[in-house]
Write a structure and sequence with these properties.
Elements lengths: L2 H12 L17 H22 L4 H9 L18 H14 L1 H17 L4 H8 L7 E14 L2 E11 L7 E10 L2 E10 L4 E3 L13 E11 L3 E3 H5 L18 H5 L1 H22 L15 H33 L6 H12 L1 H12 L13 H12 L7 H12 L12 H15 L1
Parallel strand pairs: 1-3
Antiparallel strand pairs: 1-2, 2-6, 3-4, 4-7, 5-6
Length: about 425
C-alpha cells in the first residue's frame, strides 16, 4: 500500500465526524480499508482471469460480501454498516490496486445499497429483510418506458452497461415517467429473475465488470419499486423517515461522482507500483542502461506519484467534507456541489498521467497480454469514458453557476426542480 493512501485513510479516521454515527457497526471492527487490504492478494491473483472471463471471479464477489464491504453504505436497519463514506471509498481504492473491474463493481454495489435506503420501507424489506447481502446493479440512463397500470407500472426497455448484473438479484434502471404532462426521471427496481440479461459487453477495458444489457418486456413493476429521482436528490425519499442517519443526507451527486473516480485512483496506484517493480531490474538491451536510474523516467514517475497523491487528497477530502456537513445538518449550495463533482471528474485524467508517460519506457514488453500494465492502462482509458469523468460537462456546469448562468446538471437541482420535488414528495408520502 502506498504511504499516501495510508496517511489519507488515517486522516479520514481521525476526522471529527468519524464517531458521528452512533449506530455504525464498524466501531469495533477493522476499517473498510483494512478489510479491503486483506483481500487484495487473492483479488490480484485473479485479475488476469477476470479480464479474460469478462466477469468478476465468484470467489472475489463472495469475499466482498463476507467482509461486509458490499454493505458498507447500507442502512443498519437492514443489515448494513452505515460506514464512514471516506473509509468505503478508501477501500475501493485499495481493491482498485489489485483489479479495476472488481473495484468498479464493489463501488457500484455499495452505492446502490445506499440509494435503496431512500425507497419505501416495504421495498427495503423485500430486498433485505430475509437476506441483507442482496446485490443490486444499475443502468441509470432513461432508456425504457413505463405505463401506469393499477398498482404500478408496465415497463419495457433495454438498458445498457449494467455493471455487476451477473452477480446481482435486482437492478435499478432509469425511466422517464409522465408527471403532470411532463417527463420526470424515475428510478425503478427490477427483479432480475423477470428480465433478460444480454451479454454485449465487448470492450477495450474494464472487461471484468460484466456490464451487460437488461431487457424488459411488458414487465409489471409495483408502485413501491419506483421513485422520483429528484425526490432522492432533494433527500425527501420515504425511507429516510427510518434511515435518518447523516450518511443518507449526503448529496447523491458527491457520492456517485466516485463510482469511476475511486477505481481509477486505485488502478493508477496499481500501475505506479507495478511499473516500479518492473523497472527495478530492467536493463535496456540497446545501450545497457538501467532504466530505474534514468533521469527522464524518474521525473515521469515523480509526476505520476504527485498527480495520484493530489487527486487522492481531493477525493477523500470531498468525502470527509460531505459527511461532516451532513452530520452538522448543513446543505451544499449548488456551486459547492458542482465544484465537488467537477473536482472528482478529474480523477481518471490524473490517474492516466503516469501510464501515458511511462508505457513507452518498456517498449514492446508492455503490450503483451501477460503484462498487467497493459490491462491497467486499458482499464483507465475505459474509466475515463464514464459520465462522471466528463471533465468538460462538469466543468461547464460549475462555471455556468459561478458566472451566474443557468446550469444543466443531473445531480444539481434548480430552485424550480427542488420545489417540484418537494411538492411531489408531499403528495406521495405526506
Amino acid at each position: 500500500m502506498s504511504q499516501t493512501l495510508a496517511d489519507s485513510a488515517s486522516t479520514a479516521a481521525a476526522a471529527p465526524h468519524a464517531k458521528a454515527n452512533p449506530r455504525s457497526t464498524t466501531a469495533t471492527k477493522p476499517s473498510m480499508r483494512e478489510r479491503a487490504a486483506a483481500l487484495v492478494p487473492g483479488i490480484a491473483a485473479r485479475a488476469q482471469q477476470v479480464d479474460a472471463d469478462r466477469v468478476i471471479h465468484p470467489d472475489s464477489i463472495q469475499e466482498l460480501v463476507d467482509s461486509g464491504l458490499t454493505r458498507a453504505m447500507q442502512a443498519s436497519a437492514y443489515g448494513g454498516e452505515e460506514a464512514d463514506p471516506a473509509d468505503f471509498i478508501a477501500a475501493v481504492v485499495e481493491i482498485g490496486k489489485a483489479c479495476a473491474s472488481t473495484a468498479w463493481v464493489l463501488c457500484i454495489l455499495g452505492m446502490h445499497n445506499w440509494q435503496l435506503a431512500h425507497f419505501e420501507e416495504s421495498l427495503q424489506e423485500e430486498l433485505f429483510g430475509e437476506d441483507p447481502t442482496t446485490l443490486i446493479s444499475s443502468s441509470y440512463s432513461q432508456q425504457g418506458t413505463a405505463q401506469r397500470v393499477p398498482g404500478g407500472y408496465l415497463v419495457n426497455g433495454r438498458w445498457r452497461t449494467s455493471s455487476g448484473v451477473v452477480h446481482s438479484q435486482y437492478a435499478i434502471v432509469g425511466i422517464d415517467v409522465q408527471v403532470d404532462g411532463k417527463p420526470r426521471a424515475h428510478d425503478f427496481v427490477l427483479n432480475l429473475e423477470e428480465v433478460e440479461v444480454f451479454d454485449d459487453w465487448f470492450v477495450i477495458g474494464l472487461r471484468g465488470t460484466g456490464s451487460r444489457s437488461i431487457i424488459a418486456k411488458d414487465l409489471f413493476v409495483p408502485e413501491n419499486h419506483a421513485i422520483d429521482r429528484d425526490v432522492v436528490f432533494a433527500k425527501l425519499g420515504p425511507g429516510l423517515k427510518r434511515n435518518d442517519s447523516a450518511l443518507f443526507r449526503i448529496d447523491q451527486g458527491v457520492l456517485y461522482a466516485t463510482v469511476a473516480a475511486a477505481p481509477a485512483l486505485g488502478t493508477g496506484w496499481g500501475f505506479y507500483t507495478e511499473f516500479k517493480r518492473q523497472i527495478s531490474n530492467y536493463t535496456r538491451r540497446t545501450d545497457q542502461a538501467r532504466i530505474a536510474e534514468e533521469r527522464t523516467v524518474l521525473l515521469r514517475l515523480a509526476d505520476a506519484g504527485a498527480a495520484l497523491r493530489d487527486q487522492e487528497s481531493v477525493v477523500l477530502g470531498h468525502m470527509d467534507k460531505a459527511y461532516a456537513r451532513a452530520v452538522a445538518g448543513e446543505e451544499y449550495d449548488s456551486l459547492e456541489l458542482a465544484e465537488a463533482i467537477f473536482d472528482m471528474s478529474r480523477t481518471s485524467r490524473a490517474a492516466l498521467i503516469g501510464p501515458q508517460h511511462l508505457m513507452q519506457v518498456l517498449t514492446a514488453s508492455v503490450v503483451v497480454e501477460s503484462n498487467p500494465l497493459q490491462r491497467m492502462y486499458r482499464d483507465l482509458l475505459t474509466a475515463r469514458q464514464h459520465g462522471t469523468q466528463n471533465v468538460d460537462l462538469h466543468g461547464a456546469a460549475m462555471m455556468n453557476l459561478e458566472m451566474g448562468n443557468e446550469a444543466v446538471s443531473r445531480f444539481i437541482l434548480s430552485p424550480a426542480r427542488r420545489q417540484a420535488a418537494m411538492d411531489r414528495a408531499a403528495q406521495l408520502y405526506g
